[in-house]
Design brief:
By secondary structure, this protein is of the alpha/beta class. The chain contains ten helices and eight strands. The protein has an eight-stranded mixed beta sheet, with helices on both faces. Strand 6 (275-281), helix 9 and strand 7 (320-322) form a beta-alpha-beta unit. Helix 5 runs antiparallel to helix 7 (212-228) and helix 5 (147-169) runs parallel beside helix 8 (239-266). The protein is globular and about 50 Å long. The structure holds 2-acetamido-2-deoxy-beta-D-glucopyranose (3 copies). One 2-acetamido-2-deoxy-beta-D-glucopyranose binds next to helix 5, strand 5 and helix 8.
């Protein structure tokens, strides 16, 4: 009898504690969601990384790149902030240091092969290699008045430069149980729904046969279009949007496609030498590129930071993520809900 009461009481205490833990946990999840809304990346991964984990983030002096650097440094990853402009890079570094974060700077212009080689040599000599690469550097618009040169500049920076950098750094990825990670900051603007030519759309979505020649022949066709005032490549909602976003859109179509090519080529590496390669869209983020519209930089950095810190068991490769979700490459509904018009910079 006593025993029974005792058991009942224990049971009761137990249930109470459980309910309490549950409520607390739910509150924690809510709190986490609230934080996500305001922009702090929450990382729940078991910590596979340490101070010996080396990350390179390109375009790290401002906006989303700077925020990715900040978050990785906060997590205790040794983070190399790269920027085209030495003094802007140093300025960003001072700001991070003032917040108590220990970050390393190295100059890098992805459109300059010499600068890429210098970075690679330095990374190799100083750290012996790297584990994480975030290709964030990119431009939305060119300031060159000539329309063809402007288009070329956007594609050189957002596609050819990033491709060159990645190819140069790939041999430096170190073997590790957790696998190395490459994340390309891309955009839902690069979804295949915007490719107007059906043959190309199909080629770009044929992952088994896709290669750099296909991607680059489409880029060249687009540049030829620009020179001749034609439009045979893209299908944009209006002429004005085509004029404003064509260059950027093609660069991101190419970036997404190239991510799939490299991921596919690396997929059979053996256990302990894996490299997971993905791309993501930060969403419309409050930076200069979107005329300061959209969510905080924390929200913009979130998916990239989450992707590079995932435990190996949860890593996938060759995918496109938006809001921590694999969204495929073809049709991304959110892209059509965005008021792209309001983000065109004034001339
Ligand atoms: C990429 O590398 C190739 C080969 O080294 C070079 O010819 C090309 O100019 C580079 N592109 C950019 C944008 O740096
Ligand atoms: C995207 O990721 C792949 C794989 O790491 C890389 O080779 C490629 O150059 C990246 N960027 C672009 C713009 O394609
Ligand atoms: C390409 O970039 C230039 C400079 O930003 C711009 O004037 C031109 O309209 C752009 N064209 C397209 C189709 O994006």
């Amino acid at each position: 009898m006593f025993l029974k009461v005792d058991v009942r009481r224990h049971l009761c205490v137990c249930v109470c504690v459980c309910v309490c833990v549950c409520v607390c946990e739910r509150e924690r999840v809510r709190e986490r969601e609230r934080k996500d809304m305001t922009g702090t990346t929450t990382v729940e991964s078991p910590r596979w990384w340490s101070r010996d984990t080396i990350a390179v983030v390109t375009g790290g002096n401002k906006g989303i790149g700077l925020e990715i650097v900040r978050q990785l440094a906060k997590q205790g990853v040794t983070t190399i902030l790269t920027a085209r402009d030495e003094s802007r890079g140093q300025q960003a570094l001072s700001a991070l240091k003032a917040d108590g974060l220990d970050v390393i700077f190295h100059q890098l212009d992805v459109t300059d092969s010499k600068s890429i080689r210098e970075l690679a040599t330095w990374v190799k000599a100083r750290f012996g290699g790297l584990d994480i690469l975030v290709n964030n550097a990119g431009i939305g618009w060119s300031s060159l008045p000539d329309k063809v040169l402007a288009a070329k500049e956007v594609l050189d920076t957002n596609y050819y430069g990033v491709k060159n950098l990645t190819h140069t750094l790939l041999p430096l990825f170190r073997p590790s149980a957790a696998g190395s990670r490459v994340v390309n900051v891309s955009s839902m603007a690069g979804q295949l729904a915007v490719v107007g030519n059906n043959k190309w759309k199909q080629q770009l979505n044929d992952e088994d046969n896709l290669n750099e020649e296909v991607i680059e022949s489409i880029i060249q066709a687009y540049l030829k279009d620009r020179a001749e005032g034609l439009n045979t490549v893209l299908m944009m909602p209006s002429q004005e949007l085509l004029e404003a976003y064509g260059n950027y859109t093609v660069s991101k179509v190419a970036c997404n496609a190239h991510t799939r090519v490299v991921a596919r080529d690396l997929v059979n590496r053996k256990e302990g030498e894996k490299i997971f390669v993905n791309c993501m869209c930060p969403g419309v983020t409050n930076t200069a590129m979107s005329q300061n519209k959209g969510h905080s930089v924390g929200g913009g950095a979130d998916t990239a930071v989450w992707l590079v810190l995932l435990p190996a068991s949860e890593c996938v490769t060759g995918k496109f993520f938006l809001k921590r979700t694999d969204r495929g490459f073809v049709y991304i509904e959110e892209a059509f809900a965005i008021d792209a018009q309001s983000m065109i910079p004034e001339k």
